[in-house]
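Whether sequence alone determines local backbone shape is best considered at the level of individual chains. The sequence in question and its structure tokens are set out directly beneath this paragraph.

===
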Amino acid sequence: MSAPRPVREDDLQAYVDEVLDADRQREVADYLRRHPEVARRIDGYIAQRAAFRAALAPIAEEPIPPELGLRALVEARRARLNAWRPAAAAAMILCLGGLGGWTARAVFTPPVNGVGALAREAADNYRVYASDTHRPVEIGSTQQADLVRWVSSRLRSPVAVPDLQSAGYRFIGGRLVTTPHGPAAMFLYDNPQGERLAVMVRPMKAEKNTAMTEQTDQGLDGVSWATDGIGYSLVAPTRPASLHPLANEVRRQVETVV
């Protein structure tokens, strides 16, 4: 008879989300009966999940906003791909004589890992949610403590909401978003002129400590970096130079928390 598999944090999170198979569900339940301290923590997650489900149930019944419809998302992706084609074609022409096609591909293919990928994901999510006048966030600023607990548990790392009031940006709220590299938290802000700023946070599997870098993505500018395995990206339709003081303030605050 083989020894039972150890129960890890992944199993506990899957237990909360009710995605384990029946046998593993029983094994984890038995583990929790034998470890009351862990059981209390998991019970808290389950209660929190139920509360969020109840709070968000009315939203699930609402019609999907036009900008989140399949056609709108497909058109946005098509526009993004089309924007790369002229640059890729020019690179191929320049490189065929000696460098070859693979060099062009390496230069002009969007990054798939690291801070470059984080910046692209932040810009994509900004386009989807920041323009939503109906419900840009899942949890508003009045429930900031609940939001922090929720995203920290899902990202499995303590996450703080940066305070940018001194820079003229009011915190609106936040949400969890999906990326090719797992869940991320997106915090949304606005200023008196109605301009919106997003701060996206997620764990980094590559480039876990990097300096700040600037990015421009189809009219959106950003500043991104990583500290101790957590990546941060600020995105707004403004010049990168305007974002640097905000990014410095965010970095100061999150490093104080860590």
